[in-house]
Queue: 2 jobs
Job 1
Amino acid sequence: MLLGSVEAGGTKFVCAVGDEDYRILHKTQFPTDDPKETIEKTIQFFQQFPELQALSIASFGPIELQKNNPNYGFITDTPKLKWRQTDFVGPISKALNVPIYFTTDVNASAYGEYVTAQLYNEKIDSLVYYTVGTGVGGGAVLGGKILQGIGHPEMGHTFVKRHPDDLEFEGICPFHGDCLEGLVAGPTFEARLGVNGADVPKTHEIWDIMAYYVAQATIQQTMILRPNNLVFGGGVVSEEFLVKVRKHFKNMLNEYVHVPDLKQYIQMPRVKDNGSATLGNFALAYRVQSE
Amino acid sequence: MLLGSVEAGGTKFVCAVGDEDYRILHKTQFPTDDPKETIEKTIQFFQQFPELQALSIASFGPIELQKNNPNYGFITDTPKLKWRQTDFVGPISKALNVPIYFTTDVNASAYGEYVTAQLYNEKIDSLVYYTVGTGVGGGAVLGGKILQGIGHPEMGHTFVKRHPDDLEFEGICPFHGDCLEGLVAGPTFEARLGVNGADVPKTHEIWDIMAYYVAQATIQQTMILRPNNLVFGGGVVSEEFLVKVRKHFKNMLNEYVHVPDLKQYIQMPRVKDNGSATLGNFALAYRVQSE
């Protein structure tokens, strides 16, 4: 069986086909350019595989996921102006004529991690995946289902208690200033220190401040969803960074509720090389073709 | 059909029986005293009604809700020392021999509000209920099911951005200091102003500061669960207070995601006179007897 994956990111598209064991057989990538051209390139990639059974698209957002909404399958009020109100699923569905699952990039990553945990026989019923990169976002799987309310989560845009050594920084979120994304997304290095994050030594105190904020996101999830597991991906995250996050989380939680061992509870992605979303897409494509 | 409800609060127990239309037929209350005596009084009340079909217990916490845990049905690490590690469901189940549903007080309230919304034919799929009273807690219903992870939520214990005019106050949560509960629970009036909340004029600026924090809890839910509706009950909450919460919420959200009209989105309980938990208990008892 041939399954398809589209990861539509703000800067690049990654398209892949895989088998029912979720192994990648073919893969390509191209920049996120004009919507019409980029969608056309996506279609052309998959048209090489007439035996394709189903496709899952994990997209940057915001996107419309309510199937009864006339704009289902659209990218909606994105800051990427050319992509505003773009019908994304429609033209792909029409050209390829296979079942399509449509979700956010972080939802697909959460699902990929969840499926991998099941394959590893971990006893996990619920999982949250955060990406901390150019932006901050999160998705969750509860009891095998992707969490979805009146829209998809926007977990990067909650507020947090400010670190005493970071009170002056206004944050960079164009909507909220110092929400989580405004305080810890990759471009905050440039905004706070005037240098690229890759050039900031791991010993710099900024990492501790950022961990203080990410620990609060972990507290939010721990108190609201009570998941088995939180996974952190994205360019800002490293195991060293998560060591700091765990330290702050432990202090903040103060043993108020029981959580699993912190090394398991707060962890890097199981799927290496940013592969969680592709694997999640394959699993979601498998699911949609069998419905 | 006769259904039973126990609301086990930190200061008083309310026991009631009702019919399948969730109307209260008999009701009693007594102080939360020594566990053995209090549980015995609860049993004696229900033993008056041999036709009782099922019972739902909504308890102060923390409580153990995992059915595969040997301590299922216990009140666990509560600050009420006499009640620590008390088997609550066990003796009642043994004495009454009816199916019992066990949950938190706020979960039952959330369920009561959800069921009422269905009866009113509101198109609501998900709902969060917060109580802001002696403590702060929250429960949620998603797609008809009570939200439950590795334990029940403790939504009152997340952190929030401090209000610029309230930076000195340390908060009163014995575990977390200035978590949401530590900043807005009823006893914070005494701690901040030295007077009881009932004596603080509605024009006092403290209400605006507290609304700023409750609005952030609303932002957390909006970005994580994306519910249709948030209900606020408890002694601190009034319609005047929610007007302030809506104002801060609107400013903080900054139209980032679509939410329903704020008067519907953020509201007082549908069920009057603190009746949400009793009604929720009847509905949960009905559910457990038909399983």
Note: Residues 206-224 of chain B form the longest helix (19 residues).
Job 2
Amino acid sequence: MKVDLGVRDCLYPLPTTLVGSLVDGKPNYATIAHVGIMAYVAVSVSMGKMHHTNVGIRENGTFSVNIPPVGLVKETDYCGLVSGRHADKSTLFEAFYGKLETAPMIRECPLNMECRVIHTVDFPTHDIFIGEIVSTYCDEECLRDGVIDFVKVQPVLFVNDRRYWGLGEPFAEAWSVGKALKE
Amino acid sequence: MKVDLGVRDCLYPLPTTLVGSLVDGKPNYATIAHVGIMAYVAVSVSMGKMHHTNVGIRENGTFSVNIPPVGLVKETDYCGLVSGRHADKSTLFEAFYGKLETAPMIRECPLNMECRVIHTVDFPTHDIFIGEIVSTYCDEECLRDGVIDFVKVQPVLFVNDRRYWGLGEPFAEAWSVGKALKE
């Protein structure tokens, strides 16, 4: 039987990310799992308006999206517990910069994207920043024949049961397994 | 060492969904994993402009997002292989309707959202439909104390290595495990 849950986001799991920006010249990071991909070339990050990181994104029109591995789950969670208004998160990680000079990326994260804001969707409680991907960086050891190996990336998945989950195993080929139903 | 991959979306895994709409009065479904959550109350679906499903979304201003379980991976993949222009996908699943009368949801999927388009972001290749969630439906057996149990949902995760992946295990508490670093 179907139960009507009312308005309940249930699009899980999503990858837990650290969104970075430069606030007053200093890297700051927010823990954000409400993210999305758009048209292969852009990403959305849904950021509560209270976040200190938003100040830097608005100021510079740039941000980074960093995918932390399971081994950084404590640091990742910490960034969601403490605001940059009250704590200096700039020294938690080693920052590096790409083509944009104002999107601090996290060296300890195996995957990083530097993004330029191309659109903002304004919700009463959240700024949704849509950023075109300027460049993506990957740890060399997480690449296999040019394809990102997510077994090595070990992303931290978020489900709204307030827990972090691991990634399971691949079990079927996309654009393939459904061919059996074609005739 | 970091390798610059250029513009490469790497925000994976994302949940594979079936996006439904009514085209010429008939349910049609597209397989979409480029999705996102916005402000807890809305979702985005990034849909290539060639999709037949988009016609119905534009016509009615409504769509559904359905989360298929691992057991429906063949049907899910099939919906991404074959266009509703050439094949009738309306009989693949049992459709049901909620408060909106034009957003066909899939009974065989444990989670369903009916959505009303509130915003569209136009990319050259894709329509990004942002839909406010009107209501969410869940199979009773996938609920535990009112919380959605994703072990039972068994979502099909998509990674851009052209494979479907399973969900792993929960391994840490969110808004909690990072407290260790607070002092």
Note: The CA atoms of residues 27 and 90 of chain B lie 5 Å apart.
